[in-house]
Design brief:
Blueprint (H helix, E strand, L loop, with lengths): L1 E3 L13 H10 L2 E7 L6 H9 L4 E5 L11 H14 L3 E8 L7 H18 L3 E6 L2 H10 L5 E3 L6 H9 L2 E5 L9 H9 L5 E3 L21 H12 L3 H13 L1
Parallel strand pairs: 1-2, 2-3, 3-4, 4-5, 5-6, 6-7, 7-8
């Protein structure tokens, strides 16, 4: 019984066969999936998708890579949307200092607003932190006691510890299956089990066996098995622990 803690099942890449994708996930033991939004335009369709399918849980937010689409009106609407819908989390939100042309100051403004919304609503945040983990840590410190997950974590063991001390977990997915991802594989083997979530980030970040293909949640067992092997524990034990972490 696996929880895919980060999966963009509402993405257009799944429009042609979404029901089959969900069926394959269930057949693979992926019984629940958290679906984070990326922009305000997608919130209604995401709500409808999750309301109509058992085991899908929405999060509403404004992703930093879509910064040009976000307005102050969207932030105001997000506060109302979260209060009314009571999703499992606020997100996907965060900071991206890798993609060129995304104004850091505006990113920080939009991220801070979402941290405030999550804190005031008592909800966790689902955070994107690409080449910006220290900046994310500084932000969440300002909005304690906000909690959540930094998904697709690629930082250091020290950064992971600082996040855990602040009430945050880290999400690991397909990249951990790549043999050359030495630092990430070391983190997967050594981080406290109670700090880990597993994810696919589908349709992105496929595992090493499906490089270049569309990712989907049915491939989460591959991630689970890889991390379990790195930790020298049974996949069932890792599945149970990460599912419990997701519920918490």
């Amino acid at each position: 019984m696996l929880v895919d803690s980060h999966c963009h099942l509402d993405a257009p890449e799944f429009d042609a066969d979404r029901d089959a994708v969900i069926a394959r996930a269930r057949a693979a033991g992926v019984t629940r999936q958290v679906i984070p939004a990326v922009s305000a335009a997608g919130w209604p369709a995401l709500r409808a998708l999750c309301a109509g399918t058992h085991g899908l849980f929405p999060a509403y937010g404004l992703h930093p890579m879509y910064l040009a689409e976000h307005t102050d009106a969207h932030l105001a609407a997000l506060a109302d949307w979260v209060a009314r819908e009571r999703p499992v989390a606020v997100g996907e939100c965060g900071l991206d200092y890798f993609v060129e042309g995304l104004d850091p100051a505006r990113q920080q403004q939009v991220f801070d607003a979402q941290l405030r919304i999550a804190r005031d609503a008592g909800l966790p945040v689902i955070v994107h932190a690409r080449r910006a983990v220290d900046q994310v840590i500084a932000a969440v410190r300002r909005f304690q006691p906000v909690r959540g997950v930094v998904h697709s974590f690629s930082g250091s063991a020290d950064q992971a510890k600082r996040l855990f001390d602040l009430g945050f977990l880290v999400g690991l997915g397909g990249p951990v299956t790549h043999a050359r991802a030495n630092r990430l594989r070391t983190l997967a083997a050594t981080l406290p089990l109670e700090s880990l979530l597993i994810e696919t980030d589908a349709p992105d970040q496929p595992d090493a066996d499906h490089r270049g293909q569309r990712n989907e949640p049915a491939r989460l067992p591959r991630v689970c098995a890889e991390i379990a092997a790195l930790r020298d524990i049974a996949p069932e034990a890792l599945a149970e622990a990460t599912s419990r972490n997701a519920e918490r």
